Amino acid sequence: MRATKQALACLIVLQMCVRTYQRRTATDRPNIVLFITDDQDIQLGSMECMKKTLRIFSDEGAEFQNGFATTPICCPSRTSMLSGLYVHNHHVHSNKDNCTGTYWREHLEPQSFGVYLSNSGYRTGYFGKYLNEYDGSYVPPGWNEWMALIKNSRFYNYTINYNGRRVKHGDRYHEDYFTDLIANDSVNFFKRSMLLFPHKPVLMVLSFPAPHGPEDPAPQYSTLFYNSRSHRTPSWNYAPNPDKQWLLRQTGKMEPVHVAFTDFLHRRRLQTLLSVDDAVEKLFREMKMFGELNNTYLLYTSDHGYHLGQFGLIKGKTLPYDFDVKVPFFARGPGVAAGLKVLKPVANIDIAPTILDIAGLPVPEHVDGRSFLPLLVHESRLKLRKRSRMVNPWRHTVLIERGIRPKLLKLRERLARQQERFSKDARIQRECGKPEFQAPCKGNQVWECRKNEADRWRIFKCRGAVGFLHECSCDGGNSTSESHLANERVFLKEVSGGLKRRKRASGFRLLDSSPLSSWEQYRTRSSLPAFVPKELLEQWEAEFFNYVIQKEVEEGGWYQGIFDALEEDFDFVAYENTGRHGRYVRSLESPEQTALAKDVDDSADLQDDILLVSGCVLFPNDTVSCRPAVYNSIVRWKQQKLLINGKIRILRTRLQGLKDIRKHLREGRRFSVSRRLRPQDSLLPGTENDRGPAMPVEAKGAVETSSSLSKSDFAQGCSCERSEASIHDQGHPLRNPLDYEISESMLMEWLASKERSRQEGKKGRRKPEANKRRKSKAREMLCNVPNLNCFTHDNGHWRTEPFWTLGPFCFCQNSYNNSYWCLRTVNETHNFLYCEFVTGFVSYYDMNRDPFQLNNVLGEVEVPILEQLSAQLDKLRRCKGSAQCEAYGAGSTRPGDP
């Protein structure tokens, strides 16, 4: 009996070898395997953990270093992979509209690459995630073996369509983990094809759910990557961004809970990819055992990239920047040189025509993409120092698009509006129209606006403001030199008491050149100053812009998702204890609230007497009136109450911060003040208050100084050498590490406070009934911000280890006006991104100088060049078929170049 089994086994092996030999000699058409991951980035370092995949593809195959997803959204990108079409031609614009809809099923699905290869004799199999809205009611045409996930990515507790049958899976790792199921079923399909259909080549698509949410790792990998920080690129937490589109102008820096979350989510994403790494190697070994590697092309990519804290956005995709549109893109197969690096841009629309080309099939004319097989062969021959020439030059540019493009104004008009909005003078004009900056200084006013001889607003600092003359300190601000303090006193003496003698100090310019005969006449005109150094004006102007931006951050000009709780003392606000290290709790007002505020502001009689808070108004007689919507809607009522609670918390936090500052000043005082400065006193010389010394006199060691002050003397002490990093960030208005960066120690302090709060709750600090009520209230939390797509996250989000234990929070990852159309150009000399947004906003990033797209340098590009880029973009977004799309994408390096 035993001998019989051994003989039977030998016979099976012999038969397999004979059929494999027959197959290899009977056909020269290669096998094709496409690996697709979900939401996998290339810029955040996710490929670094996949050592086996990198060895198979990068070391032994080719890496496309500029592989792009033309639309960084799951269903549109996957539709482009299957059809080879841009989004504007297949019309699947989101994960909902037309994702596996009627138009797709009737017109595009019958023309997927699976249909063409199946009709030509290939054995085809699809395994894993298909399209987000696939409901499992049918098996798409073109696939002999079909094992596809119903709906979106899951790792456990999902349902699949297996060759027309619905099969439910549970939560047992060895039987249900979806990544492993894809690996096992694809290997079994390959084995059966080799044994039963030896004369047929094989096409397989392995579409993994990783690293998409819910990011459930295999148990054996759930403790790895604890300290991974590869996602913290230079654009990580780089916010706010006044030079970018609306969404990023509204997004501020992350709170400590968000920082901890990005680290935690990055860890889980890497853990899920280790199972993909195993699956790739498993199929690779099976092919090697069957001797099929030399007759197989392997392709590896993702549907789009991902961001984790980039530009302050906590997580997500959909942006036109490289972290979202740049994807892993690898290939290996016959004729592909090992270790090849290809710089020319390829995209997801090129996958379908490449698969058709590998199979020896003609590419239909309606397909927008182009086969990169000739490019691979060409680059491989060059690497091996062999002669090679591409008949048709490869493109320089791919189209990045999201949304349906409306009719926009001409580019020059949009640029004019954008320049008007963002120019310095326009910003000063807008800010100086606000009552809080009107002259003369009063109360706690910090800045005042006055017009010069050209009737243009100029910025001056009020006398009561802290450090009104000198705020430059390169060593932390605690060692102001004695000579500089003396220079400040001399400067005040020159511009105040010296004015009586009409003495003009060297190095100062007259602000007003009107023909006035005397200083008395000068002072009668709005108390304008006579002499102010140019350097001081420029310094004040820069400080004023920073002051305005910081004020907008504190009052909601930039938003970072904060959870609005129904109870004022909800646990999440325990962060108040460390609030000085972060930003304040904020919300955005709705358009209706903004309109109400405008109505009240327009009333001159009520301007100083009405306290306006969102949708409610407090009148001088202590009566309160709210908009009708507040009373008629329980949701609006709750939102109004939450807003008031948030403002109270802000004021409490600010008050505590002011007390800390007062204590610090009291304990560290170095001066005896001879005359107290009142906050309402102006810092401008030539006013009624300007009769004596305006600076405190030191108690010890008075320094004798010259009675004259030169331009160079004034600038002394402010020429600090900046590091390369600070020069790199010089264009960012809020790039102050001391005030805005969240260090590791601060994060650990915040985490410790959360743990203490949790432990106190366990000790029964509250009554059981109170705990029950609070849990009930937590379920009703709201996370709504006008015009933004916001979501909540809590401790129950993940059901597998590692678990999130830092409590609930809210985050906003997208906006309704974030549609765009971009040119992404890469070649030997240029590397840039040019974008036009649905709002009319235009941006330009030069990645040769700024690889992480931190600064919009649109103003450095000449308008005629921008017009040519806009015209090229307009052609690409309308192109149909590879003939048009390639012609518009393979133009000059950049319009205007020779």
TrEMBL record:
Q: Where is the Sulfatase N-terminal domain?
A: 30-360
Which parts of this chain are annotated as the region Disordered?
676-708, 754-777
Would the keyword Transferase be found if you checked this record's keyword annotation?
Answer: no
Gene Ontology MF annotations: glycosaminoglycan binding; metal ion binding; N-acetylglucosamine-6-sulfatase activity
List localization entries: Cell surface; Golgi apparatus, Golgi stack
Sorted UniProt keywords: Calcium, Golgi apparatus, Metal-binding, Signal
Q: Name one Pfam family in it.
A: Sulfatase
Name the cofactor(s).
Ca(2+)
**Which residues belong to any copy of the Extracellular sulfatase C-terminal domain?**
596-670
InterPro entries tied to this protein: Alkaline_phosphatase_core_sf, Extracellular_sulfatase_C, Sulfatase_N
Compositional bias, Basic and acidic residues, is annotated for: 754-771
May I ask which residue range the UniProt record assigns to the signal sequence? 1-22
- Which Gene Ontology CC terms are recorded? cell surface; Golgi stack
State the family named in the UniProt similarity comment for this chain. Belongs to the sulfatase family.
Know the name of this protein? Sulfatase N-terminal domain-containing protein
Q: Which organism is it from?
A: Trichuris muris (Mouse whipworm)
